[in-house]
Inverse folding.
């Protein structure tokens, strides 16, 4: 009566990808290719797991391998980091989220008054209970849609 259609071969049937030493440039290039190919309604954040590591299953068609070392990506800024900078990825997400919330509440950027580099004022964020732990490094507000960076402007 009702016949089931045969499913096409699943990715699990394919042989596992080899683990290779890939550079951050290789991974960044794969992410850009994935972003170009994905449907517009799918956010790039689908690549980022809860622990900020990348979902290599989604990147497999672009990398053709799994990296030996983990890479981390900020959910807020989409910056890619190597393993030694994992804490930076976590901090940048926390501070960017706090900056976004601060700007929603006050309609002004949380920068140190008269600072030519637009350094983020952690006191302003803490005063509104938007930042629980003060980062050990400075972050700066960029001119791009109120995004932050850890790189001091020139």
């Amino acid at each position: 009566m009702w016949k089931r259609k045969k499913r096409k071969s699943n990715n699990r049937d394919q042989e596992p990808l080899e683990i290779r030493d890939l550079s951050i440039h290789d991974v960044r290039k794969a992410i850009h290719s994935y972003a170009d190919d994905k449907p517009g309604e799918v956010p790039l954040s689908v690549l980022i797991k809860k622990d900020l590591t990348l979902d290599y299953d989604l990147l497999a068609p672009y990398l053709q391998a799994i990296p030996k070392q983990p890479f981390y990506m900020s959910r807020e800024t989409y910056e890619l980091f190597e393993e030694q900078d994992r804490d930076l990825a976590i901090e940048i997400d926390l501070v960017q989220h706090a900056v976004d919330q601060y700007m929603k509440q006050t309609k002004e950027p949380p920068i140190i008054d008269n600072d030519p580099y637009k350094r983020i004022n952690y006191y302003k964020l803490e005063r509104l209970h938007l930042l629980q732990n003060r980062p050990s490094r400075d972050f700066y507000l960029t001119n791009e849609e109120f995004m932050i960076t850890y790189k001091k402007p020139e």
Observations:
- Confidence is low (pLDDT under 50) at residues 7-12.
- Strands lie at 19-20, 66-67, 71-73, 80-82, 140-141, 148-149.
- The first helix runs from residue 24 to 37.
- Residues 12 and 134 are 44 Å apart (CA to CA).
